[in-house]
Amino acid sequence: MRDEIVERLATVALALDTKDWPLLGSLFVEDATGYGKRGREAIVAQTRAHLDGVGATQHLLGNHRVTVDDTTARSLTYARVHHVGIGPMEGKFFECMGEYDDRWRRTANGWQLTHRAFDMQIMLGDFAVLRG
């Protein structure tokens, strides 16, 4: 089960880096919470507000700590995320490092996120890159 969640985390990173919003949405339960939002659509919209205005991104994940309790789980995952500026932010970047704190539920569609938080511990570059 731990490996299934680690694979789901990789799929979340893929969805973010390819800006595959339907895929990202499918990884959350309908009433999920995260980033100060409630509901799958609101979480995806919040994510798009940041990432639709940037160029390439890369979400590198590691140091996975996963605890599974039957049909629920929690994962704590280190992340290093690089964002490339475009348009008026071309030539700039924003990079952050921190830890994702994710809650999961096993559903008919596999493990889905019920809550996502990111504790940003290190920031480099220009945060305005995310506002494209």
UniProtKB/TrEMBL annotation:
Pfam families: SnoaL_4 (PF13577). Signal peptide: none annotated. This is SnoaL-like domain-containing protein. InterPro entries: NTF2-like_dom_sf, SnoaL-like. Residues 2-116 form the SnoaL-like domain. The lineage of its organism: Bacteria, Bacillati, Actinomycetota, Actinomycetes, Propionibacteriales.
